[in-house]
Fold this sequence. Notes:
732 residues, Maltoporin, Chain A, globular, 4% helix, 5 helices, 24-stranded mixed β-sheet, 6-stranded mixed β-sheet, mainly beta
Amino acid sequence: MPRQLPRLSTTAFVALAALLGAPASGRAQRPDSTARDTAHTLAEVRVTARVAPKTVTSLPERHGALLLTGTKTEVILVDSMGANAAQNVARQVLGRVPGLVVAETEGGGFPSNGIAVRGLNPTQSIEMNVRQNGVGIAADPYGYPETYYLPPLESVERVEIIRGASGLQFGPQFGGMVNYVMRRGDPTRPVALSVQQTGGSDGLTNTFGSLGGGMGRLRWFGAVQRKSQDGWRPNSDLLQTTSYVAVTSPLTPTLTATLDYSALRNRIHMPGGLSDDQFEAGARQSFRARNWLTSPWNVTTATLAWTPSRATRVESVTSYLNSGRSLVWRNEDGGPGALDVVDPATGEYVNREVEAEAFTNITEELRLRTDYTLLGLPSTVAVGTRWFDGRMHRQGGGEGTTGSDFDLSLVPGAQYEYDIRFTTRNVAAWLQNAVRIGDRLSVAPGLRLEHLRSTAAGYTDTTFAPQAKSRTIPLAGLGVTWIASGTTALYANASQAYRPLDYTFITPVGSVSRIDPGMRDSRGVSLDLGWRGTAADDRVRFDVGVFHLNYDDRVGLRTRTDPSGAIITERTNVANSVHQGFESYLEATPIVAEGVGTVTLFNSLALTDAHYTTGDVRGNRVEYAPKVVERVGLTFARGALSTTFLTSHTSESFGDADNTIRSEDAVVGLIPAYTVLDLSGTLTISRGWRLQGGINNVADRRYFTRRTDEYPGPGILPSLGRSFYVTLRAAP
Length: 732
């Protein structure tokens, strides 16, 4: 659609004409009083131009209370993607981020698909700092970093990604920070209603509704999603309700308050993992009918934003998380080959196992960014503090019923085999200062100081003593930006990273791997160098760069032989690894013409070499680190119709540090390369009415992205085959 530029008032039009006609000396001429007194009202002038659609951009160096000098960032504009938002298909939306690997496990029983970059572990996004509106939504970023809740993409305006150990201002995670920014109410309308209804293959029904607006000084937005699905595999049905509400009000001309609340309620049937033989015989098989999971999630946030001047911004964010995760399943000893069948002696199934976890945490983050002058040079400083208190109660090994329904109760007289209470306290402070040297160069050194104290108390079925561990970790970073031209810039960044051992390493849930009791925290450093910008009147957008990541004491899986001669897997500090490579995003719109339409091509490419550099696995490739991740797409838009075709290719990777090709134990082995085709389209019927549809995995490719040694497996978790969906949206 043509873009309409703002109308020019008479005064602005005269001023613009005077500016264009100024003398070469540049000195302003005094207004002619006679001309002013006889001025006439000019006819309205409208300037229109067809512009290239924008889907991916980057964050400015000063963003809210953040300072991002020299940092690699990406912003995904969700509405411009034309992707399948009803099913949160990550490869269609977030896939334009170079090198993004998606653990497509949602159809196998995990509530959300995990993501990672640069050869890191994508399981439940454990190596990313996952946030919503700048607030952490994982149970505990240090003790239990798995992400169970993600907001529905229908309620997300954009997704922000910051690389380089989370930019020091969010945390030390190796993979960086991903932030889902929610929609806000339209302040120009008292009430704005939007309703979407989606139907699709495998019994998909998705209803989404939002209501927002502004009244006086108040701005508000609320959304509810109700989704159900029978599932692509048997025993993979899903029922889920997600809701979100936010209210924003200016308390004074310089102080604004926002209160928001997010909730998730779900019931997930887990079809279980497969062995290699089972997957090859039929990826849609399921040999588990009695495995269930639920993960109720609640996040409440209060935000204060104070801007006492144009140069200064202060933000205070206080959040409270009260959530849980519970499952009932057949004990998976023996792996996927141990079928869950009726015992002929009793005429019943074996008793299931019940696991339960509860999470509560309170977080307070205070940020300040201000501009000032240092030795005659314009500078910006960003400082902040973070206080976190998290508690987790883990119970497991309880004897459940012999039934097949969703029943988390224990049989009479039974108790949990282990019952442990964990605590994590974190205090962090950071400072980053950018100094602008001339018109082109900015240099920003930074420092973050983390203090962690973790405790564990309770009992297990083996020897267990109360534990406490404290550590203080200094982390340094440096960012540099060089403005190469009016529309391009070079950036470089170096940041230290850190990953403490979390609860899942100490007392894993439902794991079939042995745990090394001598594991250590992981440390490393992340380096970026890139060039980004636009060209050809914004018809070409690009971000190309190289990266280098040192990862010491990386935790992973090894294949061992126990004293009895049996082959087992062990979770341990495998070795040090190095991840390096090339990342590129290119988006070009070669055709923008009336009567023809708009054609946009995009290519997201990452070439990654991630291998171990120490130990007896030296030279082996790091797990879940494909050498090539490439997504190529084409979008054609004409009038009310827009279509996008996407090809996603991911090369092979391994499920363990020993680079096992095939094993009797499906937890380890090769993850073959795969290419997936997706087609989506949008038709604007009339004002406020839109029809959207598409085909996921057009070629019906059989593939998988993950092997797991715990629930919802163990074994191979097949990704979804071909499916169709249609969405009707009404926004009167």
